[in-house]
């Protein structure tokens, strides 16, 4: 895949040598160009992810062409096509939804531009369309949320409302599945309502208001697929005159600073970690791919769980 770039480098190197320039000077001049299509800025997590990628590109001396898709798949496809037209060295992107990527990925492959998936997976059978996929195990995150619930909320019926992430996105699909896997066969745990809040605070609040209107007394637990929706829902719960974290236990995912603040205030019970700090790992993979090295097909981020009791101690160490 890297033949085109290597050939270009070799001929440029020959020219540079003929002109009496040392190769070290040449190496400094020829920057790797990375086209990155980001989903948007829907959450605190996403903002931290964007910062991590921009900073890591700077640190690695990689030229970053960054495009914000504003949560629209069509914009991501446009951005990828534009990266292909610009003949970037590597394309990376975080796919907003799982399906519908085959055509554009085949176009990148035909142009011999390697593609790296970050954060979210695609639902395509042909895995030769990308070099590696780096990011969290969303299924396991859902399981961790479920395990915390069954270990900590016991006795009687437990009615759960669920705020799902963006419809069709890998984290929404897998976090739901992982959570349901754990509560399956335990009839006291019931998901009584489940709706998308699109990973945003505003939508999380709006949907929680609707849940509360429908069943104010019936909700024991909120399971939110991310912290932003949980934080939005906390406002709705307080406005309804209830105590988040007590009257309604709250389980969410990401472990962003906002969630730690809510945990320290006793309003959120647990946050399952999902790290957005993928920048350094991504730049390393980009450099390896350009250098023709083999990179693992799947790079999984190591993560843990933060219950509210650990929040005050952990908060000063948090980087996002
Ligand atoms: O894909 C990761 C998810 O996307 C994060 O959990 C969420 O906050 C974000 O918007």
Tally of extended strands?
Answer: 12
Number of domains: 2
Task: Give, in order, the helices and strands.
Answer: HHEHEHEHEEHEHEHEHEHEHEEH
**Sequence stretches where pLDDT stays below 50 over 5 or more residues:** none
Q: What is the radius of gyration computed over CA atoms, rounded to a whole number of angstroms?
A: 22 Å
Across the major sheet, the strand order is 2-1-3-4-5-11
Using the alpha-carbon principal axes, give the shape. elongated
Bound molecules: alpha-L-arabinofuranose
And the CATH topology of the largest domain? Answer: Rossmann fold
Major beta-sheet overview: 6 strands, parallel
Structural class: alpha/beta
Organism: Ramlibacter monticola
Pfam family, one: Peripla_BP_4
GO molecular function: carbohydrate binding
Domain Periplasmic binding protein: 35-293
Structure description:
- InterPro entries: Peripla_BP_I, SBP_2_dom, TAT_signal.
- Residues 35-293 form the Periplasmic binding protein domain.
- This protein has 320 residues and is of the alpha/beta class.
- It has 2 domains: 31-135 and 276-301, Response regulator (Rossmann fold), CATH 3.40.50.2300; 138-274, 3-Layer(aba) Sandwich (Rossmann fold).
- 44% of the residues lie in helices and 18% in strands.
- It is built from 12 helices and 12 strands.
- It has helices at residues 3-18, 23-29, 44-60, 73-85, 102-110, 138-152, 170-183, 201-214, 227-239, 257-264, 279-290, 311-314, and strands at residues 33-38, 63-68, 90-93, 115-118, 132-135, 158-164, 189-196, 221-224, 249-254, 270-273, 298-300, 305-307.
- A 6-stranded parallel β-sheet has the order 2-1-3-4-5-11, sandwiched between helices. Strands 7-6-8-9-10-12 form a 6-stranded mixed β-sheet, sandwiched between helices.
- α8 packs across α9.
- The longest helix is centred in the N-terminal third of the chain and has 17 residues, at 44-60.
- The two termini are 35 Å apart.
- The protein binds alpha-L-arabinofuranose.
- The site of alpha-L-arabinofuranose has 13 residues, from α3 and β9.
């Amino acid at each position: 895949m890297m033949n085109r770039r290597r050939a270009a480098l070799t001929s440029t190197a020959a020219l540079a040598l003929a002109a009496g320039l040392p190769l070290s000077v040449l190496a400094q001049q020829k920057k790797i160009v990375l086209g990155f299509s980001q989903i948007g800025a829907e959450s605190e997590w996403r903002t931290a992810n964007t910062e991590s990628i921009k900073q890591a590109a700077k640190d690695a001396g990689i030229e970053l062409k960054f495009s914000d898709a504003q949560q629209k798949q069509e914009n991501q496809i446009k951005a990828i096509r534009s990266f292909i037209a610009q003949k970037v060295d590597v394309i990376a992107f975080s796919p907003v939804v799982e399906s519908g990527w085959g055509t554009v990925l085949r176009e990148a492959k035909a142009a011999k531009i390697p593609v790296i998936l970050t954060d979210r997976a695609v639902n395509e059978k042909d895995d030769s369309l990308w070099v590696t996929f780096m990011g969290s195990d969303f299924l396991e995150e859902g399981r961790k949320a479920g395990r915390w619930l069954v270990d900590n909320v016991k006795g009687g019926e437990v009615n759960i409302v669920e705020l799902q992430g963006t419809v069709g996105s890998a984290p929404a699909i897998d976090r739901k599945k992982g959570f349901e896997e754990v509560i399956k066969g335990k009839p006291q745990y019931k998901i009584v309502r489940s709706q998308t809040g699109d990973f945003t605070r505003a939508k999380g609040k709006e949907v929680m208001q609707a849940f509360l209107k429908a069943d104010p007394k019936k909700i024991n637990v909120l399971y939110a697929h991310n912290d932003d929706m949980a934080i939005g829902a906390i406002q709705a719960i307080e406005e309804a005159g209830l105590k988040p974290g007590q009257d309604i236990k709250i389980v969410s995912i990401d472990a962003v600073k906002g969630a730690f603040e809510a945990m320290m205030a006793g309003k959120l019970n647990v946050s399952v970690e999902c790290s957005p700090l993928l920048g350094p790992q991504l730049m390393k993979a980009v450099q390896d791919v350009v250098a023709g090295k083999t990179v693992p097909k799947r790079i999984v981020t190591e993560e843990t769980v933060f219950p509210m009791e650990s929040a005050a101690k952990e908060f000063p160490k948090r980087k996002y």
